Amino acid sequence: MKFPNGPQTPAVLQLLHWIANPMSFMEACAKSYGDIFTIRLKNLPPLVMVSNPQALQQILTNDTKALEAPGDLNDLLESLVGKHSVMTLSGAEHQRQRQLLMPPFHGERMRNYSQVITDVTKKVISQYQIGKPFNIRSATQAITLRVIMQAVFGLHEGPRAEKLQNFLSDILEKGSSQLSVALLYFPALQRDFGPINFWGKQMRRQQEADQLIYEEIWERRKQLDSSRTDILSLLMAARDEAGQPMTDQELRDELMTLLAAGHETTATALAWALYWIHKIPSVHQKLLQELDSLGDNPDPSMVFKLPYLNAVCSETLRIYPVAMLTFPRVVRTPLSLGGYELEPGTVLLGSIYLTHQREDIYPEPKQFKPERFLQRQFSAYEFLPFGGGARRCIGLAFAQLEMKLALAKILSSLELKLVDNGEVRPKRRGLVTGPNRPIQMVVTGQRQVKSPILQTTTI
Q1: Fewer Cβ within 10 Å of end Cβ, the chain: N or C?
Q2: Neighbouring C-beta atoms of residue 164, cutoff 10 Å
């Protein structure tokens, strides 16, 4: 089988580079081989990486025709989210799970989560003292995890909620190391070798968390409450086309999917946004002016629609996208793509990172410029932080709502500054990206929203 050009170094060396620094690996390949190239990672089939918007459009709009999503390649995620997750399933099973998952994330139900997001953010940021530095990512992780515990799991207080939150936080934190990523690519090492074994410890943590999740599901089934609006309750009430509900294991796997996809990613995006906002004074000033224009206690729907806040969030997700890649697709009938003739069995990956770094779409791509998103509208194949096609992130609207409301609450409540104004770069963090060093911030004072009336009054 013939593949597009790519690096000729041994597959094991490419894998090590991919694990250690995927961004520089992709950029080096794009510089040498263009926007369609092949990489070879040990234990995986050759992977054709694509960052050309026209080719991405062809891939992402042909999900059910010339291409299919390979469940076996998504098995890298199975140890965390399970084999019944919408992330790891393919074909009809994937379509069923997706249809069951979608309703809680659309329409009026999204409004139910606005107050949860605002209240959780207010509670977390109230803990930070004036003049005492803190890691902003720790703060945003606390916000997103508590939001998920309340909005998704429906757990607010109590021993089970606290215990489960601690377990889940520990699992995700330990799973973000380069060692854990390396083990994903070597299935033979994914075993419990005894008390000193990393994978074994992760397995035991996951089993304890699973037990708590199943206990919650069993109790909910015994005492059904149709008035509850948390996502777990809505999923338990959902029925597929045959009238069948999700099984306990399916519910568990989808809860872990929502946790993995919604906690780490949104926490990282929020941390990046706060870094850029406070690194560039003009961005900070424009954003505060826009937020102040809504006055005290603005309606969440008005916050969500603010154009400059949206531009800041979009540029944050563009410059260093948390998700580097789209889900893989496998060619099932001969496909002509970007001048290459691809045979059945070829695996395709869209590079979100490289697409967002294209100078022909985003001039000066390494510069943080929210104005890009005020000056033009980018297509779904030029700007795709949540992936695209039939596997675009289901929680897209929830993530955007959480990011905007949390930022608005933080910026309206606190005067913050960076402890160190030095550059922060992206690095691998588990299967996604994150800052390459802690982003330390300090509260310099409480903030009062300036009245838009007073701002426009002249004397």
Answers
A1: C
A2: 22
